[in-house]
Amino acid sequence: MRIVKKPEERRDEILDAADALFGQKGFDGTSTNDILEKVGIARGTLYHHFKSKEDIMDALIERYNTRLMRAAQEVAADRSIPVVERIIRAVAAMNVSGGGGEEIMEHIHKPQNALMHQKIQKVIVSGLTPILADMIREGIDEGLFNTPFPYECMEMVVVYANTIFDDGARLTEEEVAARIPAFIHNIERLLGAEAGSLLSVMQMFGGGGGHE
Predict the structure, then answer these.
(1) CA–CA gap between residue 139 and residue 56 (Å, rounded)
(2) Domains of the chain, with CATH numbers?
(3) Sequence-ordered alpha helix ranges (H) in the chain
(4) For labelling alongside 104, which of 37, 70, 143, 169 has CA 20 to 30 A away?
C-alpha cells in the first residue's frame, strides 16, 4: 500500500535525506538518484517539490539560515541584557558551537560542499547585519556609539568575521588569537565607542576567542 504524506512532510523528508547525503558524499558527489533511493520516492515526486539538486541545496541553506537567525533574533530582543553584551551574544549565537551550528558548519566546510559554504556565508551576512545594526542604533541612543553608518559598519564587521574567523579560513588558534585584539580595536573605532569598552565585555566571554 502506497503511503501518502502531506506535502510539507514529504518536502522535509527529502531535505533530511539530502542533508544526510551531502554530509556523507558531498553536494557534488550526491546524485538525485541517491536522494530518490534514500527517500523511496519516484522522480516525479521529487520534482514536484524541487526543480533540481541545486534547488534542494538552496532550501537546505534557507532552513539553516532560519535556525541560525532565530537564535540571533531571540538574543537581540532581550532588552534586559545590556546592548553591548547582546551584540556579542547575537554574534555568538551564529557560532559553530551553538544551536545545531556545529553540525551545519562541519557539513559545509567540507571541500565538496564549497558552493553550499559560499551561499550560506552570503545569507549570514544579509541576515545578521540588520539584526546587529538595530542594536547599534540602540547603542547610539544610549550614547555608547557614535557613527552615522550603523548598518554599513556591521556589514563590514560581519563580512570580515565571516571570512577570517570562519573555520574554512584554516587559521591556527594562534593566528585567530592574534587577530582578535585588532578586530575589536577597529570595531570600537568604526562605532565611535570608548577605547577598550568592547574588549572588556568580550573578556567576560572567555577572553573573546572563538569564531564570531
Answers:
(1) 40
(2) 1-50 (1.10.10.60), 53-204 (1.10.357.10)
(3) 7-25, 32-39, 43-49, 53-76, 83-93, 101-108, 114-141, 150-164, 173-191, 197-204
(4) 37
Q: Choose among 181, 92, 191: nearest CA to 133.
A: 191
C-alpha 37/C-alpha 42 separation (Å) is: 9
- Residue 195 region by backbone torsions, left for phi larger than 0, else alpha for psi between -120 and 50, else beta: beta
Phi-psi region of 66 (alpha: psi -120 to 50; beta: other; left: phi over 0): alpha
**Residue range 49-94, pLDDT digits in tens:** 999 998 998 898 888 888 888 888 999 999 999 999 898 888 777 6
Rounded distance between C-alpha atoms, residue 8 and residue 18, angstroms: 15
Q: Tell me if 190 sits within 8 A of 147, measured CB to CB.
A: yes
Alpha carbons 135 and 201: distance in angstroms, whole number? 15
- The pairs formed by 115-121 with CB atoms below 8 angstroms and a separation of 24 or more are 115/27, 115/57, 116/22, 116/27, 116/57, 116/60, 116/61, 117/168, 119/57, 119/58, 119/61, 120/61, 120/64, 120/65, 121/162, 121/163, 121/166
Measured at the alpha carbon of residue 90, what is the angle toward residues 81 and 176, in degrees to the nearest 5? Answer: 120
What residues in the chain have per-residue pLDDT under 50? 1, 96-103, 205-212
Cβ atoms of 150 and 87 within 8 Å: the answer is no
